[in-house]
Amino acid sequence: MDTMSDNTSHNILSQVNGSSQIVITDSKVQKLGSSANYVKYYKGTVKFGKGLRIQTKASVLAFTSCDGEAADALYVRLVAVNSPFTVKPLSYGRGIRRYREYTFLAVPPPSCLLSNYTDGFNDKTVSMKRFTEEFIKITGDIVRAIITLHCQGYWCSGLKGKHICIYKMEKCTDAKIWSFCFAGGNEAKKSEDWVDLGKLLELAAKRNDSYTAEIEDLCKKLKNKTLRGMKVLKHSALLNVREKFENIIALNLFILVHVKSQPQVPSGDPEKDKIISELVKFMNASLQWAKAMPHWITQSSNYQAPTTETGLSFIDGLRDLFEHENEYIPEKVKQSQSKIQLVGRDPDLECQLRLNLEKIFLQAQNFVLELDIEY
After folding, report:
1. Sorted alphabetically, which keywords does the UniProt record give (predicted)?
2. Is residue 13 pLDDT above 60, yes or no?
3. Which of 59, 117, 182, 187 has a CA 20 to 30 Å removed from the CA of 123?
4. What is the spatial distance between Cα 218 and Cα 206, in angstroms, rounded to a whole number?
C-alpha cells in the first residue's frame, strides 16, 4: 500500500450498486497496530442514501495489485459471511484518474488491532501472569470467528494480529477478523488457523513475560492441532479465576460420583477410559503439596493439614477452600483489605496456586477439560 502524493481530499466512486461513495478526507497515510504488525489506511467517510446525504466516518484501506488482494473481492467475502465476528464493510470502490490503480475498502474505524495486545507489553493483555478478562473476551471472539469462517468454507491464511480489528464501545470490547480466503473443503488449510492462533497467544504471553506452564500448555495443544473449536475456550488459560475454582469443585464432585463410588467399568470410549485411569493415578499419587500453600491459608484456624498429601486430598482441600474462602481470610485482613484477598490482589490465591503448584494445579484443570466436566 502506497502513500498518496498530496493532501487534498479525493472522491472515489463506489461500485456497490452506485448507491454509495467513499471520500478520503486526509490523503496522509495512517498506521494502525504495532510498529512491526500494522495496516495502513486513510481517514475518510462513506456517503450513502438518497442523494448521498447520509455519511459516516470510515477507515479506508487501499490495495494495489502488489498486495495480492482487491477490495471488491474482500468486500464480497465479508458481506457473504455477515457475522458479528467479522468486520462489517461499509463500501468499496476503485480510484479515479491517477488513483485508478487503487481499490478501496471502507470499514468502521477500529480502536486498535490485535497486534497492539500481542506484540508488546500491554496491561490489558496480562495481569498476574494470566490473561486478563478483556483479552479472554477478545480470544473468544477470534475463536468464534474462525469457527464461523470454517463453517462457510473460508480460512484465515496466515492469521496475524493485523488481520483482527478491535472495537471498543463503552465497556464492551469486540474482536472482528477482516482478512480471510476461500478454502472450500480443504480441512488441512483450516486446521492451520488453530496453529496460528496458538502462535499469537504464545507471542502475547512471551512479550508480557507471562509464558507460564498453563499458557504454554494451551499454545502447544493449539500448535499440535489437538485442541480446536469451542473447546479451546474451556482451557484453564482462557478461564477467569472464578471459573478455575468452579472447575476444581466440579472435578471433586465427578470423582465422588463417578470414580470413588463405583468400580471402574469400561465405558466403551477408550480415550475416556484412558483419561479416567490417569485421573485415578493422580488421585493416589504422593504429591507433597501442603507446604506450597499460601501461609495465610495454612495458618487459618479453619485449615486442616492433610493426613496424606495425594492428588485426591489436594483436590478436596482446594474444594473446601474455594467453597468457604471467606472463612480462611484472617479477620484483620478483612477489616483492612490491604494485604490479602482471594481475587484481585497481586498475587491473589489463584496466582499463588498456579505458580507454586503449577504442575498439579494444571493437571487438575486439564482433567476437567479432557473429561468435559461441567460445573
Report:
1. Coiled coil
2. no
3. 59
4. 13
